[in-house]
Amino acid sequence: MSIEFVHVDVFSPEPYSGNSLAVFPDARGLSAAQMLRITQELRHFEAIFLEPTADRQSVRTRVFDLFEELPFAGHPIIGAAAVLHRESRGSDAQVRRVMLSAKTVTIVTERTERGYYGLLDQGTPEFLGTVQDRASIAKAFNLQPGDLRDDLPLEVVSTGLRYLVVPLRPGALERAGIPSDISELLRGFGAQFAVLLDEAALEVRHWNNDGIIEDVATGSAAGSVGAYRLKHGLARAGETFLLHQGRFNGRPSQLRIQTEGNREAPKSVKVGGDVAFVGRGTLEVLP
């Protein structure tokens, strides 16, 4: 048995930039263990496996990173929706329901001059508490407490994955890193991951919790940042702002974020980006 996949780059209109992704348009019959092994073999940051349904506008999906299945992720959904749009050969905008293990989301895709663009509605954000231990957080990222903004809170925000948003002073982002695994530290604060935010530059950085791999463009984290910025008066509802990521690992990416609601009651966060097609492949042997 063989299986086909499509290689796309998300959050960039240019191939070989943005966040790479393997999309398996028809992964029926694969087990979770096989999906994980395939993701590890291909070495993209994440891979997404699709299961077609009777409704062409709905698709079941499973997303894996190099370690485990994820209940939600941003750039895999945008990339997968662009692949389905391209394979449908439709020229008009398309709306799809994407069913994940944790939630169902809606995404709109449209053709562009250079590829495709997807806008993912991540739904209503959750604000899960602030963190007061600034010294421990600074140390976890190889920074000093003075590198953290003291006028903005450290806060756990989720649109599907629980991110600790860490606002930094200008210049601190480039000095940041993770010298040792932060999973246990984050778990104590009710977070799964962390994202560092330079509000002045509208730029973020995010790593796997062991600090070995830095992500290029993190759609789920961008959703949390968008909700955070709306709540704290840094963004206006209904307006789109551009978030930058990937500069430090040579794959600059741009994520477009739009929030709805108000500071007291954010209603939804939408994250959008371009998708560039790189190629196709076939796995002739399955694990």
Characterization of the model:
With 287 residues, this protein is an alpha+beta fold. The protein has two domains: 3-123 and 274-283, Diaminopimelate Epimerase, Chain A, domain 1, CATH 3.10.310.10; 126-271, Roll (Diaminopimelate Epimerase, Chain A, domain 1), CATH 3.10.310.10. Helices cover 18% and strands 39% of the residues. The protein contains five helices and 16 strands. The protein has helices spanning 32-42, 75-88, 134-140, 183-188, 219-231, and strands at 3-10, 19-24, 46-52, 58-65, 69-70, 94-99, 104-111, 116-121, 126-131, 154-158, 162-168, 193-198, 203-205, 240-245, 253-261, 266-283. The strands form two sheets. It has an eight-stranded mixed β-barrel. A five-stranded mixed sheet has the order 9-10-11-12-13. Strand 2, helix 1 and strand 3 (46-52) form a beta-alpha-beta unit. It is globular, with a radius of gyration of 18 Å.
Summary?
This protein has 287 residues and is an alpha+beta fold. 18% of the residues lie in helices and 39% in strands. It has 2 domains: 131 residues, Diaminopimelate Epimerase, Chain A, domain 1 (Roll); 146 residues, Diaminopimelate Epimerase, Chain A, domain 1, CATH 3.10.310.
SSE arrangement:
Blueprint: E1 3-10, E2 19-24, H1 32-42, E3 46-52, E4 58-65, E5 69-70, H2 75-88, E6 94-99, E7 104-111, E8 116-121, E9 126-131, H3 134-140, E10 154-158, E11 162-168, H4 183-188, E12 193-198, E13 203-205, H5 219-231, E14 240-245, E15 253-261, E16 266-283
Parallel strand pairs: 2-3, 4-6, 11-12
Antiparallel strand pairs: 1-2, 1-16, 3-4, 4-5, 6-7, 7-8, 8-16, 9-10, 10-11, 12-13, 14-15, 15-16
